[in-house]
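Sample pair:
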Amino acid sequence: MEKDKLLFYNEYEQFYEMAEKSIAFQKFCFDSFGQDFSQDGFSDIEQIDMILPYIPAKEDVHILDVGCGNGKMLGYLQKKTGAFIHGFDYSQKAITNARTQFTQKAEFNVGIIGEIEYPDNFFDMVVSMDTMYFSKDMSAFAGQIKRWLKPDGVLFVGYQEGELVPRTIDENTTQLAKALKNNGMSFEAKNITKQTYDLLKKKRETAIIHKAEFENEGSIQWFDMLMMQTECAEGSYQQFEKEMARYIYVARK
């Protein structure tokens, strides 16, 4: 598949080049999310720390991050647990940066959701933060992940509705829930829509604080992007909830 035809491919190539160089963006991420993972979404430290209890406290643990970007989130999980980290992303710039930063017990590949393969029964955990909807066939991709997981493995997903996928009734009616059910995977889900609304407002306020720094380094277009991304939180929570929802899913084979 030609990469430039993939969703947001060219934009993410530019994004990860910026994230590597922009001091203003790095400060923004830390102040908004509690850690700089080069976030282009909603993965604050509270959400990432929710992953930790599901990582086995044993030797030879392997974690895969679907759409790992430049690997900073995986690096954090490795620092906390000592796990062997694996990640793939369609962005060559992101993977090049990940390979430079993380060289011990780490494997990073350029790959496309639905096309890349890993061994069956290999991973203790697969993490997907805002990436499942990049698959052409979510049910088929959930089936791949199920194969990759060890018998006691866990899939941890941050999943948003209202932008790339339509808003449904609740966590049991999403495209992801249907994909998991189609593959016989049990799951539990937590609704974090209110936390997401609050985080969007914080992101907007933080971006405004750092606006002059974005301007001074010549990256005002990324400040404009943050303003556009957070505009949906300018109204009331009641209105936001009608259009958007966010869930954390924990699924098992």
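The radius of gyration is 18 Å.
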